[in-house]
Amino acid sequence: MRDPAGTILGLFLALSPTLAWGLELYPKQLALPKELVPENIDALVVEGYGMADFEDGKGNTTRVEGRRVYGNLMLRPDPRWDGEKTWMSFEKRLTDAGWKIVSARDLGRYVVVFNHPQGVWCRYAGRASDELELECVEKGGPPLKLDLPVPGPKPERQDDDADAPWLRRFPGSELSTSAREDGPFDVASDGEPVLVGRESTVRNYEGPNGLSNIQLIAVYKASLIQAGWKILHESEPKAQEGLLLAQYRKNSRDLWAQFRVSSGGYSVRSADVGASLSPEILKRELNITCRSTIYGLRFDAKNGVRPESIPILERIGELLSENPELELELGGHIDATGTKEARSKVSAEQMGAAKAWLLAHGIADRRLTIKGYGDSVPVESNDSPEGRALNRRLVLSKKGCVR
Q1: Picking from 136-140, 268-272, 341-345, which range would have the lowest pLDDT averaged per residue?
Q2: How many CB atoms lie within 10 A of CB 324?
Q3: Per residue in 103-162, pLDDT tens?
Q4: Which residues contact 265 (CB under 8 A, 6 or more apart)?
């Protein structure tokens, strides 16, 4: 006699091919019983390169990176079993196929971690047969490589409706919006803002489906390094928001790129800081207003110039070399943090470090003076992080120029 429940199940799967197809998104080694169907195929998440931590129940954790699939499943027909009994209904099928049970615990819901010798890890969690969660990761690296062009010695043309000339979009994504923004942009990962440059372009991309924080960061990180970029910051793999910051400082270029993963896509903020600080631009500003304000000159804990700030000093050195009659004051301005005496001392020490670099690279001492202004000439209120960031700046002043 035929099993009525099996007949109903077969008819259900025949009439719902998309549900059966959803199971194929999981690793082939899993051999899921046909009674399991996705609760909602559209809610199944498939990441070409993702990450998950698997615990063994004894305080040990194994982090696995690779293709990741997770979502909710249902057992049909539904016998209203609890999570443990539902698991027991197909545990033997898995162990017979070579899977090893790493841990099985009742944590308010029945949670089982199991792995396969071919490098697949999974986690099952269920309260009742219609509330099953299944997450699997197949060990492996990013499934694709992105080749980025090496920036040339001269600034390239940038179009609003296209990728940045030295940053190609992630395969499968589409440019949705692009906007140029005046003013320096924040390159800090958290805490107080850190400003660089004078303008930037933000490009927002949609897709591809299943793009994870770890995948975007891993692919772009490898591609940027290959093209000669320096990675200044990357978010932790488990961070809620994916963030990557990179700088290119070769061939007389000073380029910045900041990547952020968002729901359904990602954004790229880029800036050609070197082009905005060319000797021609700086000279014109000095001739018109007698001064030029620069953001992004950063210092370490001992007030020495940080490596990512060297391109700024290179632009100032070029300005002085191309204009041998020019004499400058390097004015250091900081925010209102600390005592007034300390602020003046710190800003003076920072300008001393900048001057020392320029002297070491061929600029005559008589052409440079320094002054630490501390917080005595703010451009914004020090009551907000954004205001404090705008107050931290270098001001070049042309000697003998009065406006």
Answers
A1: 341-345
A2: 8
A3: 999 988 899 999 999 999 999 998 776 678 999 999 999 888 899 999 999 999 888 889
A4: 173, 176, 204, 205, 206, 207, 211
Angle made by CA atoms 32, 37, 38, in degrees to the nearest 5: 110
Phi, psi of 112 (to 5 degrees): -125, 130
Domain 277-398 sits in CATH 3.40.1280.10:
no
Consecutive H or E run containing 65: strand 61-75
Closest CA to 270 of 251, 294, 254: 254
Question: Would you call 69 helix, strand, or coil by DSSP?
Answer: strand
Report the C-alpha gap between 197 and 257 in whole angstroms.
Answer: 12
- Which residues is 248 bridged to in the sheet? 255
Q: Are strands 328-333 and 393-398 parallel, antiparallel or unpaired?
A: antiparallel
In the numeric block, which tokens belong to residue 81? 């079993």
- 112 Cβ neighbours under 8 A, 6+ residues apart: 87, 91, 101, 103, 104, 105, 123, 124, 125
Report the distance separating Cα 115 and Cα 138, nearest Å.
10
208 cis-preceded (ω within 30 degrees of 0): yes
> In this structure, are residues 61 and 238 in contact, taking their beta carbons and an 8 Å threshold?
no
CA distance 317 to 368: 11
Specify the pTM: 0.83
Q: Look-up: residue for tokens 């923004």?
A: 181
Q: Where are the domains of the chain?
A: 4-139, 174-273, 277-398
